[in-house]
Amino acid sequence: MSTMSRSRASLSPAASERSTLPMGESAGPGSPAFKPLEPTREQLLNHFFERFKFYTSLCLGTSAILAVFAFLFLIPFVVEPAIQTILAEFVPEAGICSVSEHVHAETLTNCTWASCREGCTTAHTKCHKIRVNLSRKPFVEGGPIPTEWDETDLRFLINPEGCGYPPRVNCSVFANDYAGPKAPKIFPCYYSLTRPDLVVARYSWESTVRGLILALVLPAAVFVFSLSVLAYWHCRCCDRACNRRVHAESFTSKEDSKLLCELDEDPSDDVF
């Protein structure tokens, strides 16, 4: 069995300017008898693959780094709030709420909590504080106002986090819709089974779970895929193991397969 060589063909000026003259004859580059050899189809394909491999590796490495930063960014903004919302166990069917108190407070000491905040990482000096009465009966559009309430003066938040970013969250519009002059007397709200003092205006189990899954799966999938391709292309151990398995399957006897593995492990066979 002949020794298997794994050297790569590449395009170089020396390879493309070899003369086609018979042995023993020579001609200068300006001579009419000098005919440079054109690169073969295999050399062109190898050259194209090397360039494709380089730029693709660069893109995959950048994607892997961005996936890590995206995951770290999504933890405080999506992952942690979604987990807290799931643990709060909000009822899927809305109850009945009615505003019992609305205060437009100012200064940091008076805004220790707020029904709505535009921005989840900054402190606010102006805030809306809304409290509601709660009836756990299912909300019916146009239904009567309850005469008895199950809970009174509960904190009313725009969503489980109590904050958000424009244009999805507008605290002035929220306060006007629920505690303004034209606000309805009763409206649907969602209460927590594990936190009795928490009532929210917006809640969706499907949206919460979908956001959590996307925040976990997408960055992880991009990172694993990019790292796997880079390891397959550039990790010497992975390349040897894959090539050894593929070539060994083409040999029928164990002796041939063993000999092939010994040739792969021989460092003198490497061409740099």
Give a written overview of the molecule:
This protein is α+β, with helices and mostly antiparallel strands. The protein is 43% helix and 14% strand. It has six helices and five strands. A five-stranded mixed β-barrel has the order 1-2-3-5-4. A hairpin with a 6-residue loop joins strand 4 (187-191) and strand 5. Helix 2 (41-88) runs antiparallel to helix 4 (205-234). The longest helix has 48 residues, at 41-88. It is elongated, with a radius of gyration of 35 Å.
Write the layout of secondary structure elements.
Layout (H helix, E strand, L loop, with lengths): L12 H4 L24 H48 L6 E12 L19 E10 L15 E7 L13 H9 L7 E5 L6 E3 L4 H30 L1 H13 L5 H12 L7
Parallel strand pairs: 3-5
Antiparallel strand pairs: 1-2, 1-4, 2-3, 4-5
Keywords: Membrane, Transmembrane, Transmembrane helix
GO cellular component, one term: plasma membrane
Pfam families: TipE (PF16972)
For the biggest β-sheet, the strand order reads: 1-2-3-5-4
Relative strand content: 5-15%
Can you write the helix and strand succession as a string? HHEEEHEEHHH
> Mind telling me the C-alpha Rg?
35 Å
Unreliable segments (pLDDT under 50, ≥5 consecutive)?
A: 1-19
What is the overall pLDDT average?
Answer: 79
SS content category:
alpha+beta
Count, helices: 6
How does the major sheet shape up? 5 strands, mixed, barrel
- Helix-residue proportion: 40-55%
What is the terminal separation in angstroms?
Answer: 23 Å
